Amino acid sequence: MVQHQAEETFFRKHRAGAPERFFEREAAGLRALGAAGARVPKVLNVDDGSLRIGRVRTGGRPSPQTEEAFGRELAALHAGSRRPAGEADSFGSHDGVPIGYLGEAPVDYTPTGTWAESWVARRIVPLAREAERRGVAPTAALATAERLAELTDGFGTDSPVDHPGAAVLGPAEPSSLLHGDLWAGNRLLDHEGRSWLIDPSAHRGHREVDLAMMRLFGGFGEEAFAAYEESFPLAEGWRDRVAPYQAVPLLVHAILFGGSYGLRVVDSLEAAVRLGG
What we know:
Layout: E1 3-6, E2 10-14, H1 22-35, E3 43-47, E4 50-54, H2 64-80, E5 99-102, E6 105-108, H3 115-134, H4 139-152, H5 164-169, E7 176-178, E8 187-189, E9 195-197, E10 203-205, H6 208-216, H7 222-231, H8 247-257, H9 261-276
Antiparallel strand pairs: 1-2, 2-4, 3-4, 5-6, 7-10, 8-9
Helix pairs in contact: 2-7, 3-4, 3-8, 4-9, 8-9
């Protein structure tokens, strides 16, 4: 378990026997998000067992103004981090390193040429297999995940518009740099009401992932979503894709915490299959 230590000018996270590159990947994500324009703490030091970052002076309270500002900032991050026209795009790792973590669960961020391979084949199916192995999700979860992989197989920028993958994942669009674990606890409000991002699982992917994660556990005002939509409109059908895009964090929660998350995984995956079927 990761332990936290707050000091006057820094915040230190440490874990004995941390997995391979665990804190390094978090530090790399913070740096990438910061370079793309997000407000993040400065990385002060990172080693195999710990991460030290600048301390954020929290104290702000959510308001319509803070939520609207955050929605616009997130839209700017997603829009501004797309590859320049003519540059080869990829999904998964933002810096070529395939190792990633969502919370404390390993995830595969091997760079791929399509979003379907990155999201479904390299994350949903392996995580569903692990959840079944641990007995924390019904057997239907893996079978449904494998069906979803069949429906989305090969879906990419050159696929026809009627490919079932478009209904499941949304029309093909360029990748954005994502926070990757954007629940309310990973967004801090400082004493001026400004939003800061912490604890990322940063990768390149479909921007609806961050928005779906924001809705999974609540904690973000509707003003944030409205401001995002106004700044960087989403493709038609995005509301139907909220539940399917929650499959990966739900699988991770089932693996880490068990409980009712396994049942929610099945609901999420079945919603995705219905879209593609």
